[in-house]
From TrEMBL:
Residues 1-23 form the signal peptide. GO terms for molecular function: electron transfer activity; heme binding. Keywords: Signal. This is Cytochrome c. InterPro entries: Cyt_c-like_dom_sf (IPR036909). The keyword Signal applies. It comes from the Bacteria. It comes from Aurantimonas marianensis.
Length: 121
């Protein structure tokens, strides 16, 4: 008896969930244009590709408002210590130099070329 009740409850729940999903109005959804979140050219970009994109895309770097050199060094250290990111100690200086030069507080944000068009459409 308990098995039949459990089975009925599961079937009822599955039916309710599927009906809810099917009843949703998707007309308010918007197709966003593709953007090119690529890294700035320069010495050290390959280090970002090697180390940073092993865990996440370049979007958090490119979209970020920027850090000072000390901020980028702290961010790299946080990724290493808190999240277990593998970054060779010998590459930390070059990595933070690249990030500061290309994504520092004075140079950010680095939006894709079509970002202005996207924002005003």
């Amino acid at each position: 008896m308990a098995r039949i009740s459990l089975f009925s409850a599961v079937v009822g729940l599955a039916t309710t969930v599927s009906m809810t999903v099917l009843a949703q109005d998707y007309s308010n959804y918007v197709d966003l244009p593709e953007t090119d979140w690529s890294l700035a050219e320069g010495t050290g970009g390959e280090l970002v590709e090697t180390y940073c994109t092993a865990c996440h895309s370049v979007a958090p770097i490119v979209q970020h408002p920027g850090f000072s050199r000390e901020g980028w060094e702290a961010e790299i250290e946080k990724m290493r210590k808190r999240y277990g990111a593998y970054v060779e100690e010998a590459d930390v200086d070059a990595l933070s130099s690249y990030l500061t030069t290309n994504y520092g507080t004075a140079t950010s944000p680095h939006w894709p070329a079509n970002a202005t068009d996207i924002a005003t459409d």
